[in-house]
Amino acid sequence: MKIKKGDLVQVITGKDKGKQGKVIVAYPRESRVLVEGVNRVKKHTKAGQTARGSKTGGIVTTEAPVHISNVQLVVEKDGNKVVTRVGYRFDDDGNKIRVAKRTGEDI
């Protein structure tokens, strides 16, 4: 998967189109990522009690995973944020390095 935890991404389609956020968790098997502040959903949690006796539960707003095809990596070039695709190259030692296609710089 070309997008990893900690990357800054921008949503390119859907209800949150144009929003940017940091990747919190990547789910490679499902081809999904959890992005900070994007695809927020309301979740109804069952009421319960904590050890101290206070009530928990109610409606909680949280992020839901987004498909990897709906986000694109954001890199910084000359102080501007640029949306780009990701490619790969190998260095002299044979290590695989991610490269921003638009800027040509290593990520």
From TrEMBL:
PROSITE patterns: RIBOSOMAL_L24. Residues 2-29 form the KOW domain. InterPro entries: KOW (IPR005824), Rib_uL2_dom2 (IPR014722), Ribosomal_uL24 (IPR003256), Ribosomal_uL24_C (IPR057264), Ribosomal_uL24_CS (IPR005825), Ribosomal_uL24_KOW (IPR041988), Translation_prot_SH3-like_sf (IPR008991). GO terms for cellular component: ribosome. Coiled coil: none annotated. It holds the Pfam family KOW. The keyword Transit peptide does not apply. Keywords: Ribonucleoprotein, Ribosomal protein, RNA-binding, rRNA-binding. CDD domains: KOW_RPL26. One of the proteins that surrounds the polypeptide exit tunnel on the outside of the subunit. One of two assembly initiator proteins, it binds directly to the 5'-end of the 23S rRNA, where it nucleates assembly of the 50S subunit. Belongs to the universal ribosomal protein uL24 family. Part of the 50S ribosomal subunit. This is Large ribosomal subunit protein uL24. It comes from Streptomyces iconiensis.
